[in-house]
Amino acid sequence: MSSTLDRWSPYALAILRIVTALLFMAHGTQKLFGFPAPPEIGMPPLLSLFGIGAILEFAGGLLILAGLFTRPIAFVLAGEMAVAYWMFHAPQNFYPVLNGGDASILFCFVFLLLVFTGPGALSIDGARRPAGPRHSWER
């Protein structure tokens, strides 16, 4: 059973990467384009902290979705989410479920996982690297 599951690990990782990227991009599209609805606090100026965050969320999410430059982009996005949590959520309340920061924490740790694992299957990074196993699950 374990070897069967191991064979599917790169695909499960790819699904996690793709779904995370789509959810993350939605935060960027909301702040950049007002889609699917504008933020409650209004559209942020592009060169503000929220505007730069929106650019990172949309463009970084797009790169993670495609699996292009996954490790360095995931590192930057994990940092963005750590900053978002500690600057905006943690000061409101100690508990993430009460301060609204649980998504920031989850995004941060999923992106950290991608830093260490890479993109998984179905990625441009994977298509660009030489053939042959790089991880134990690819043998």
From TrEMBL:
It is found in: Cell membrane. It holds the Pfam family DoxX. Keywords: Cell membrane, Membrane, Transmembrane, Transmembrane helix. The keyword Metal-binding does not apply. It is a multi-pass membrane protein. InterPro entries: DoxX, DoxX-like_oxidoreductase. It comes from the Bacteria. This is DoxX family protein. It comes from Microvirga arabica.
